[in-house]
Amino acid sequence: MLGLKLATDPRWVNIVESNIEEILTDHAWCEQKAASNAISLVTYNSELEELVTEMLVIAREELEHLQMVHDLIKKRGLKLGRERKDHYVNELFKFMKKDGSRKDALCDRLLFSAMIEARSCERFKVLSENIKDEELAKFYRDLMISEAGHYTTFLGFARKYTDNIDIDKRWKEWIEFEGSIITNYGKNETVHG
């Protein structure tokens, strides 16, 4: 369904298990950034009523996920660390087209968002199937389903709002680009790292 070029090596979970506090902190900040992204899409596209409505739903869900991760951190006696830079997302951001019409930029922003959700969904699936901690396995299974929904929402809106872009072609370009950079990741106890 996701069409990603490269699957995450399940051995990445061994790295994650070596530092649960780090993955949870990184995950919390990923949820915060996802909520902020949805709010930004509302801010810059307030005239698109359907998009605004759905982005508000996603923003709320992402904040709920942040709350859930924070609750897990507290329950385990861990601390929410400082915000981490997400180098993977920063590389994807550089690939986003920033020229053309406002609608063209919106479509690429939606594809950028879909790509992040797709990779997060895939990583959560790997975690849910391979982590020894049963509570975290269930937690990540539930979140994987949510991320898949967000992925399809972003991709659907990119298709809806395009005027002159072949979205399927551009999505394939995103898939190819992501496939070329993901080989640099999967070596750290972070969601995208």
TrEMBL record:
One GO molecular-function entry: tRNA 2-(methylsulfanyl)-N(6)-isopentenyladenosine(37) hydroxylase activity
Which GO biological process entries does UniProt record here? tRNA modification
Family matches, as Gene3D superfamilies: 1.20.1260.10
Q: Which InterPro entries match?
A: Ferritin-like (IPR012347), Ferritin-like_SF (IPR009078), tRNA-Hydrxlase_MiaE (IPR010386)
User: Which PANTHER family does this entry report, sorted A to Z?
Assistant: TRNA 2-(METHYLSULFANYL)-N(6)-ISOPENTENYLADENOSINE(37) HYDROXYLASE, TRNA-(MS[2]IO[6]A)-HYDROXYLASE
Q: What name appears for this protein in its UniProt entry?
A: tRNA-(Ms[2]io[6]A)-hydroxylase
Q: Which species is the source of this protein?
A: Flavobacterium flavipigmentatum
